[in-house]
Amino acid sequence: MASEPDARESDVPATAIPAPARLSDDGDEDIPVIVEDMLHQERVDLEAGMSPVPRATILLIVACLVVYGRQVQVGGLANAARVIQTGATHRDEVLDGQAWRLMSGAFMHANLEHLLGNMALLYILGMACEHAFGVQPFLFLYVAACIAGGLVTMTTEVPAVGASGAIFGLAGAIISLVYVRRRRIELRDHRVGIVLAIWAVYTLALGLLSPIVSNVCLLGGLLGGLILGAILPPAILIDRRELARRPITRLQGALALGILAVSAILFVPHLR
């Protein structure tokens, strides 16, 4: 009587077992043929399991919408001086001790088109980064990109508003993540690169046309995102719960929330 196959053997995926070597006509053993599926079977799909409701990203979007509504309500877009008065990132004020402006400017916008364009990209890239890195590292990344963009903005006299620097940081983090870990992570839909390129051109054009949108801010955010994207451990490659319990992850979340909270407390009184 034939014995039943061992359960452990039956659980092994067929694609994980290479085809046996064949003997050629002269008796030599042929080299097994490696197909494309065998090369990619260990790679993780960046989009697999991505939630369409990224909670931290949505909270950031809501904050930007509320701030813009308040800008309109108090006449905060009347002119450049009024924009600075209500919280824009500006070198003189930051050097005068108002460091919170490095964050507040990223929640303000120049007009409705500026706001809606940024919020659409923040949703897409925020969803990707929140999924790829986890909630706490994502918030740390966002805050760091805001600050990096704000610091570079201080090389000019231009008052700056807009989340573009932070969003460029998110784009840089995804680019860096996919490139550095290209043997482990697979980006299924490469058309996202086209979308990002179009948005980048639009944002740069807006910066040229608006006196309160800084293009140099984008470079600072992008650089910060590229660096952090290569350093932060990706949650999609390790256990999310274990990552969330790490002291460094908790520290990142605490720093991000602390900076956001203090900046908000100091910023809100100026929106009047």
From TrEMBL:
<keyword id="KW-0472">Membrane</keyword>
<feature type="transmembrane region" description="Helical">
    <location>
        <begin position="137"/>
        <end position="154"/>
    </location>
</feature>
<protein>
    <submittedName>
        <fullName>Rhomboid protease GluP</fullName>
        <ecNumber>3.4.21.105</ecNumber>
    </submittedName>
</protein>
<feature type="transmembrane region" description="Helical">
    <location>
        <begin position="250"/>
        <end position="271"/>
    </location>
</feature>
<dbReference type="InterPro" id="IPR022764">
    <property type="entry name" value="Peptidase_S54_rhomboid_dom"/>
</dbReference>
<keyword id="KW-0812">Transmembrane</keyword>
<dbReference type="GO" id="GO:0006508">
    <property type="term" value="P:proteolysis"/>
</dbReference>
<keyword id="KW-0378">Hydrolase</keyword>
<feature type="transmembrane region" description="Helical">
    <location>
        <begin position="218"/>
        <end position="238"/>
    </location>
</feature>
<dbReference type="GO" id="GO:0016020">
    <property type="term" value="C:membrane"/>
</dbReference>
<dbReference type="Pfam" id="PF01694">
    <property type="entry name" value="Rhomboid"/>
</dbReference>
<comment type="similarity">
    <text>Belongs to the peptidase S54 family.</text>
</comment>
<feature type="transmembrane region" description="Helical">
    <location>
        <begin position="192"/>
        <end position="212"/>
    </location>
</feature>
<feature type="domain" description="Peptidase S54 rhomboid">
    <location>
        <begin position="97"/>
        <end position="232"/>
    </location>
</feature>
<dbReference type="GO" id="GO:0004252">
    <property type="term" value="F:serine-type endopeptidase activity"/>
</dbReference>
<feature type="transmembrane region" description="Helical">
    <location>
        <begin position="160"/>
        <end position="180"/>
    </location>
</feature>
<dbReference type="InterPro" id="IPR035952">
    <property type="entry name" value="Rhomboid-like_sf"/>
</dbReference>
<keyword id="KW-0645">Protease</keyword>
<feature type="compositionally biased region" description="Basic and acidic residues">
    <location>
        <begin position="1"/>
        <end position="11"/>
    </location>
</feature>
<dbReference type="InterPro" id="IPR050925">
    <property type="entry name" value="Rhomboid_protease_S54"/>
</dbReference>
<feature type="region of interest" description="Disordered">
    <location>
        <begin position="1"/>
        <end position="26"/>
    </location>
</feature>
<keyword id="KW-1133">Transmembrane helix</keyword>
